[in-house]
């Protein structure tokens, strides 16, 4: 476990050193060139790797969920999930055998974890760490000591002054009543938190978004963090359905693109960002091909043309160019599947892609860029 934790730190060191070298090579008088320095999909074999659907935030009757652990496991298994983390509040609902379910028999990967909830909520994953610690930094540090990985849960719930369901819905319906971005002091606090804890690898971007869009500012906050931290310190995004009841089930999930679904493989993919994630507009209780969000088929980096090209499909049908929108510094900078990162004047330190269809939205993790001669 300690070796795994060190691997997280090494990843950030490599990215930071790469960016530093590019900056040191900058020579006055030479034309600046943008270079791709963070590519979370660099080692994904899109032709041979499989797409493993997973939910990383799930509750049962062991905390405040409505379904028993066995019922939850059966539900996700029946709907084709390859991996699942039962994350009850401050309780590690694991191993599954104590609930008369075996991951190998189900053909799933059991990810141990829980939702640390005595402070800003944080997912503790890939370890059986439990704590009554009320200090956020101490609790997150404890995840690292246990060999785990941490993810911020629904951050807007913790900094928005009012976050009842009613007030959230009113702000969603009334654009004038919603802040357009998180306050700078809030962003600074999150930036410092991520920098203090290398194993805090991601933040929730969307959390059971339908039908109330519970935390609409989480996506905006993610862009603010990326603007402040990329490319030196990537922050991956995840979507989770935070399932408590059937109303939450199957709306948000991540897809690991890996050669297998062994737990160490999925853990490494979470650390390196080798996954994409989706928000559904149609609940997963009766899935059909037409209700599935776009699936990413390939991501190609052309080092000669300096382009990143993403191809996605629905029902084996290609999507129109208008479905692909690239975001940088929180604003759209390009429409279409291929981004030319040396000719796009709106590009900041990162770019991420949203692929939108009637059935939902699929997100990539951010690509990071640095400028050098």
Low-confidence stretches: 21-30, 162-173
What fraction of residues sit in β-strands? 25-35%
Largest sheet: 11 strands, mixed
Under the CATH scheme, which architecture of the domain at 2-31 and 51-281 would be assigned?
Answer: Alpha-Beta Barrel
> Helix/strand-derived class?
alpha+beta
* CATH superfamily placement of the domain at 2-31 and 51-281: Metal-dependent hydrolases
N/C terminus separation: 41 Å
Number of strands: 20
CATH class type of the domain at 2-31 and 51-281: Alpha Beta
Number of helices: 9
Q: Quote the average pLDDT.
A: 87
Task: Specify the helix fraction band.
Answer: 25-40%
Element-by-element helix/strand order: HEEHEHEEEHEHHHEHEEHEEEEEEEEEE
- Shape summary: globular
* CATH topology tier name of the domain at 2-31 and 51-281: TIM Barrel
Instruction: Give Rg in angstroms.
Output: 20 Å
Can you walk me through this structure?
The chain has 373 residues and is α+β, with helices and mostly antiparallel strands. The protein has a domain at 2-31 and 51-281: TIM Barrel (Alpha-Beta Barrel), CATH 3.20.20. Helix content is 26%, strand content 28%. The strands form three sheets. Strands 1, 2, 3, 4, 10, 11, 15, 16, 18, 19 and 20 form an eleven-stranded mixed β-sheet that branches. A five-stranded mixed β-sheet has the order 5-6-7-8-9, sandwiched between helices.
